[in-house]
Design brief:
This protein has about 170 residues and is of the alpha+beta class. Helix content is about 35%, strand content about 10%. It has a domain of about 50 residues.
Length: about 170
């Protein structure tokens, strides 16, 4: 398929699925093109610098990478997370394995890290207050999570239930 046909196909998908905007990048930036808008009202186009909240898709990619490392003998899904993140010090963190994180059986409660990671931009556009108004349990005083250290500081006070070992 040539480039023009591919781009016409991509545009047709965006229109048919009513997607405001997206970017497609292939083969380490040999091809990169933004489609649609990052802001429909102002018609600001999607560019290579547009930030998208891809959320949970990263979980699948991370699990694939971990399983590939296990296949290569570089780690085990049964390794403690403390092997890789020794800075985590909350009670019970020694018992949590990579497998627990991969299968959502670590005993950690649902966390609002996504909101706090996006807090600065959400405050700028007003959507952080909107989330609070809609009932999201967010703390205005919680610092933005935009560094590794900020994430560790956010996670440190959490106490958890015992990891579930029912999933093999």
């Amino acid at each position: 398929m040539d480039k023009e046909k591919y781009e016409a196909f991509a545009e047709s998908l965006i229109i048919s699925h009513q997607t405001p905007g997206t970017i497609i990048a292939l083969n380490h930036q040999r091809y990169e093109k933004g489609f649609g808008y990052r802001d429909l009202e102002n018609q600001w186009p999607v560019t290579a610098d547009t930030v998208f909240g891809i959320g949970s898709i990263t979980k699948s990619m991370t699990c694939i990478a971990i399983l590939q490392l296990q296949e290569n003998g570089e780690l085990s899904v049964h390794d403690s997370i403390k092997t890789y993140i020794p800075e985590i010090t909350f009670k019970g963190s020694d018992e949590i394995t990579l497998h627990h994180l991969m299968t959502h059986t670590s005993g950690l409660p649902p966390l609002n890290t996504l909101f706090y990671a996006n807090k600065q931009s959400m405050e700028r556009d007003g959507s952080f207050d909107l989330q609070i108004q809609l009932g999201a349990p967010l703390d205005r005083k919680q610092d933005s999570i935009d560094t590794y250290e900020a994430l560790i500081n956010y996670l440190t006070p959490f106490r958890k239930k015992s990891p579930s070992s029912s999933v093999s």
